[in-house]
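A quick aside before the break. I want you to see a complete sequence-to-structure record at least once, exactly as it would be stored in a machine-readable document. Don't worry about memorizing anything.
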Amino acid sequence: EKPDIFDIFRESNRGDTLACLLMDELAGWLAVGLSNLFMMFDPEAVFFEGDYSKAGDYFEKKLLEKIKNISFVSIDKDFRVIFHTPESNKTAQGAAAFARDYFLFKTLDI
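That is the input. The structure line, written in C-alpha cells, reads:
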C-alpha cells in the first residue's frame, strides 16, 4: 500500500528521516510561493485550509523557518501563518474581514 500525504505528515511529526526530508522539500517550495505572495500583496496573514492544515508541528515550524530564510522582505512585523483547525473559526473571520474591506474600500471608494 502506498503512503498518502497524511502518513507522511504523521511520520514527519514522529521524526522519520524520509518523511522529514519530504516535508522539508514541500515546505521549501511552498515558502518560495508565499514569499512571492508577500512581495506582491503584503498580506497580514495567510490561512491554510484542507489537508495542509492537518500537517502538524513539524511542517508548520519548517515552513515558517524557510519563509524567514528566503523572504526578500521582512515579515517579522505582524504577519501570521494560520493553520485552520476544526475548532477554530479563523477562516470565517478572514473571509468576513475581506468582505468588509472590499465593501468599504472598493464599493464605497473610501
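Two observations worth writing down. DSSP finds four helices and two strands in the chain. Strands lie at 45-48, 80-83. We'll return to this after the break.
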